[in-house]
Design goal:
Blueprint lengths: L1 H11 L3 E3 L7 E4 L4 H10 L33 H4 L12 E6 L6 E6 L5 E6 L7 H19 L7
Parallel strand pairs: 1-3, 2-3
Antiparallel strand pairs: 2-4, 4-5
């Protein structure tokens, strides 16, 4: 189903469909929950928290030494990449590919906040290419109508 949906989304021009997960602003999926969250963590690992420098070692009181001995801090290259919000990807893009053998539910999930932005239920009658194309077309039509606040039948 993901290929049919990607085709319909790309053809409609509603979203730019990307194959590189790092360029996606949102993800089209047929499931949400723990397994989906794990997949998001794999694709978009949370940023590494910056290391805090250890406190300087204080000299013994009886030495009178005035040395400040501490560990040198080298920036962590993983932390230098920053969080997901540090990159501006421009216009709306959607990544497909997290669609398996769903039961007709489709969700658009924001990559950064992981909030469900939109959902619809549209189950294909069978798995023939013609029916999957029609179902993907109906899903995209629902999305277009909801984005333009156009009510069905108008």
């Amino acid at each position: 189903m993901d290929q049919y949906l990607a085709n319909q989304l790309a053809t409609s021009g509603i979203f730019e469909v990307v194959t590189d997960p790092m360029k996606a602003d949102a993800i089209f999926t047929d499931q949400v929950g723990e397994a989906f969250q794990k997949k998001l963590d794999d694709l978009y690992p949370p940023p590494t928290p910056p290391k805090t420098p250890p406190e300087a070692t204080k000299p013994a009181a009886d030495t009178g030494a005035n040395l400040d001995v501490g560990e040198s801090t080298v920036p962590d290259p993983k932390a230098a990449k920053g969080g997901l919000g540090d990159v501006d990807f421009g216009g709306p893009t959607v990544r497909t590919g997290t669609i398996g053998r769903g039961k007709g539910n489709f969700f658009v999930v924001d990559r950064s906040s992981r909030a469900v932005l939109w959902s619809v239920y549209e189950r294909p009658k069978n798995n023939t290419p013609g029916e999957l194309t029609k179902t993907a077309g109906r899903v995209v039509k629902h999305l277009r109508d909801d984005l333009t606040d156009k009510k069905p039948g108008e």
